[in-house]
Amino acid sequence: MSTPQRLPIVNSDDGVWGDILRQYLMLQHYDDGTDNPGVNGGHQNITIRPGTATAGTAPLKFASGTNLTTPEAGAMEFTTDTLYFTITTGTVRKKVAIYDDTSGATGDTYYRDSSGNFVRLAAGSNGQIMKVASGLPSWGTDNGTFTTNTQSGTTYTVGTTDTVVFADATSNNISVTLPAASGTAGYRFYIKRIDSSGHTVTILRSGSDTIDGMTSFTLDLQYTAFGVVSNGSAWYIL
Fold first, then answer.
1. DSSP label of 49
2. Residues 210, 237: contact at Cβ < 8 Å?
3. How far is CA 150 from CA 13, 169, 238, in A?
4. Which of 158, 192, 151 is nearest to 172 (CA)?
5. What was the pLDDT predicted at 161?
6. DSSP assignment, residue 34?
7. How far apart are CA 102 and CA 94, in angstroms?
8. What is the pLDDT of residues 121-132, one digit of tens each?
9. Using CB atoms within 10 A of its CB, is residue 165 exposed (0-12), middle (13-18) or buried (19+)?
10. Are 171 and 152 in contact (CB under 8 A)?
11. CB contact at 8 A, 203 and 226
12. Span between the terminal Cα atoms of the chain, in Å
């Protein structure tokens, strides 16, 4: 008769308690048959049973605690909202990146924020490409396929998704401000005046940026255009 795969039963299993208990423990614990405390007793494998919908039955649950003073290779720690795992090389504690998937959608992209968490960037529109502005990814338009918008208000700040801005100063002066050059290296923007009024269309820098060494640029005549590109520290007219 084979040895039962269970714990011994009290007031039963006379004469086979040791065999039953040994088989039960050796199912997942290592034993080389010798007095070897450095090896024996540790798990040789772990089988976690599935959980249920009832609270307290999760297959694996960590209680929030305090991280070790000195990281230990192979250690997994959970503190408040962060799960850590320590690698062997350099014995460095690493944060396990997690994200909230309750509002995600097909095609979304996740990137690391300043706190080390995954942040969702919704999928862009057809024809858009991913760009970087101020160190963060965003969707924009490929300069081979221009997007246009017309501005007739008194002020407008060019956004990273802009390509061509039509300035209509028919009713008033317009000031168009470029974004910071430091966050838009490689970006190109075009501003074109479309009215023939006597009002002004002035292109302004952001902060202390320069535009071909200047602080501003004026489009005086109808249909004149202005194109610039950033090198990461200043704007240059194309």
1. P
2. no
3. 88, 10, 21
4. 151
5. 84
6. S
7. 25
8. 999 887 788 888
9. buried
10. yes
11. yes
12. 90
Residues in the chain: 238
CA distance 169 to 83: 56
Are 176 and 167 in contact by the 8 Å Cβ rule? The answer is: yes
Burial (CB < 10 A; 0-12, 13-18, 19+), residue 158, is buried
Tokens (6 digits) for 170: 């028919």
Q: What confidence category does residue 116 fall into, taking pLDDT thresholds of 50, 70 and 90?
A: confident
In the numeric block, which tokens belong to residue 213? Answer: 């060494």
Please name the amino acid found at residue 22.
R
Q: Is the pTM of the predicted complex or chain greater than 0.90?
A: no
* C-alpha span between 20 and 14 (Å, rounded): 11
CA distance 46 to 27: 9
Q: What confidence tens digit (pLDDT) does each residue in 134-165 have? A: 788 988 776 666 789 999 999 999 998 889 99
